[in-house]
Amino acid sequence: MTASVLPRAVVRAPRPGFGNVLRAEWIKFWSVRSTAWSVGMLFVLGAGLTVLVCATSAADLADGGIDEAPGSFITWGLMIAQVTAVVLGTLVATSEYGTGMIRATLAAVPRRGTVLAAKAVVLTGTLLVVGIVTAFAGYLGGNAFLAAEGIGLSLDDDGVLRALVGSGLYLAGLGLLSMAVGLLVRHTAAALSTVLGLVFVVGNMAFLLPGEWGEWVAKVLPGNAGSPVTMPVPFNPMLLDPWPGFAVFAAEVAVLLAVATAAFRRRDA
Amino acid sequence: MGVGSGHSRMYRGGAGRQPRRHDHTHALSDGNAVIVARELTKTYGARTAVDGISFTVEPGRVTGFLGPNGAGKSTTMRMVLGLDRPTSGSVTVNGHRYADSPAPLREVGALLEARAVHPGRSARNHLRWLAASNALPAARVDEVLGIVGLESVADQRVGRFSLGMGQRLGIAVALLGDPAVVVLDEPVNGLDPEGIRWVRTLARQLADEGRTVFVSSHLMAEMALTAEHLVVIGRGRVLADCTTAEFIARHAASHVRVRSPQAGELAALLRRSGPDVSVDGGPGELRVRGIDTTGVGDLAGAHGLTLHELTLVQSSLEDAFMTLTADSVEYGAAPAGAVR
Asked: Which ipTM did the prediction report?
């Protein structure tokens, strides 16, 4: 036992718990550039485009040139910024598989459910906070232009505060949905195109479906069901009401996540 | 100690070390064993990667896990670490499944075959999250960076690392939790000669400290230098499980090389000299088995034959390994359905 390369002191370290795994996932999440980029883009697109759209539309909205409610514009940028939430959620899962990292992760924490729970908390926590901050920034900037035309919205107005908080909730849910798909598909490009296709393409195309059942299919698709909560007044009058819609969306995310968790527990790493 | 002098150890075959009796049934009931695999089997579709292997790994020595590429080494190691689920059979570490360890990094340190690191993350951050996950002190990160000699590049992105630096980081990961069991999958891949020697020394040092060291490789010569005990597998089956010395004695055949202008005459004399003696080889040079150099020299002297060379040739361990595993090397690609 001469000149041990390994001091034996660490043996006395405490037994690790969920907090340790959470901290590990937090370090992992923030120590790659894609996270800072995605979060930065979320803010720039979400707040910036809202301000831009409000600035350019305020006059037309005020004099009736655009036949829409100002409340539909106050979180406009989030419609675009949600792409970054999809990217973040997807990468949380697929970057582990693309690099072989998943083996290091599961060798360090073999309790797979714990790994997923920690990832989910880090991802949704970040998206919730960043989403709400972004929505508020967009509101403050955009509303200044609306107020200048006399059509400003107060936080007390119907649905405004709900939309700002709802933006964070919706982005967090969308991130989780993307993570679940990423876990199932285990490939970045495939997972990204699946979620983006589902939310943006299928979600819009579904309104072309005929009859009452077609209308319902369109309403309950994740992007369509989840997004009304982000707007004081939705653009599309056919959508579900904000909270019922969000409940449908949350249930869909929960089911998908349960399926992904089951697969993740069962599969070889 | 240079690489050359290290090489000569190989031919002594670790004879200075204590050869231990280690037959199969004995091993399975050995209470001393740290890693115990029983009838471990893994199939991917129609392909059987690991075919009912049983072996044990004991503390205080380096156990080499040897086999050609595709023999099932990495699959076995992934099952040891609970990453892949055995189709049947079991493998335990310290008497329990790896996955049941409350703080696995403190119990088992592993260098995984693939680099298993995000290329965009720095070496330090990679070690930081690992340390955090098992409640290891953050100071330990700098310690292991120092041990593997990566302090100066600790904040560089791992994507820029050479293969050798990547291996060093992998070894830092394995040492992070100061584990009593160290599992290294192909640790010398991509290392330069100095790095290879460093891994060899480290593995033996860890074993000397009483740790259990399990090292896989497809390089027989390297394993002969590093490991005291060998588990040799081919096509998912155990071909040999014995001390390195036994393996060498059993499988590395020797012969005498003789060069002589009267080779034909000598060959005839040798064939008549004993029933066990065999001779082959071309004009001027003979390969003689069943008689040692003294015997050949005496015979030649007694008949006044001129010798230009008389050498004992120990066939290399690599050759012995190739012969042993010749039937088990997997040629060609696996059927498409077998790829995970």
From this structure: 0.91
